[in-house]
């Protein structure tokens, strides 16, 4: 099975609920993936970013509810979406990694599909291009989504 890295091009710097375009899209994509029966890990840069995404997912309308938890939270059942940050991650198997970190997480090889983002900000674009090159060098199939 080929490993696929999808980069979503963020077209606007506008944000909602104090979330960036990439963070909002990460929430929407995680909901779509869960509804398709996949388990997702959202890898955040910081614990605060993870808390912000957690809050945004809880604030969705009831019909848009997405079962999720923060890494390290004790739950009775494994949730389909886990939100982690640098240095904090449960070891449960996941199908898709949504990467909001500046670098590629060292556990990326455990996944067959990665979703990453190309932000509007020029400095962030340079960092995203570097991740793109690294995925390609690791043999991942690259896809761009506009």
From TrEMBL:
A GO molecular function assigned to this protein is: DNA binding
Single GO biological process annotation from the record: DNA replication
Sorted alphabetically, which SUPFAM superfamilies does this protein's record hold? DNA polymerase III chi subunit
InterPro entries documented for this protein: DNA_pol3_chi, PolIII_chi_sf
What Pfam family is a match for this entry?
DNA_pol3_chi
- Quote the protein name from its UniProt record: DNA polymerase III chi subunit
Source organism of the structure? Lonepinella koalarum
């Amino acid at each position: 099975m080929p490993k696929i890295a999808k980069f979503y091009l963020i077209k606007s710097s506008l944000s909602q609920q104090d979330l960036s375009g990439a963070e909002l899209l990460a929430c929407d994509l995680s909901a779509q993936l869960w509804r398709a029966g996949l388990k997702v890990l959202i890898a955040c840069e910081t614990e605060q970013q993870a808390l912000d995404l957690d809050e945004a997912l809880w604030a969705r309308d009831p019909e848009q509810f997405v079962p999720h938890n923060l890494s390290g939270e004790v739950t009775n059942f494994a949730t389909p979406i886990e939100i982690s940050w640098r240095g904090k991650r449960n070891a449960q198997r996941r199908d898709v990694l949504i990467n909001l970190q500046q670098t590629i997480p060292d556990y990326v090889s455990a996944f067959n599909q990665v979703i990453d983002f190309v932000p509007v900000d020029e400095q962030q674009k340079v960092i995203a291009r570097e991740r793109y090159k690294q995925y390609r060098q690791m043999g991942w199939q690259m896809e761009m989504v506009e």
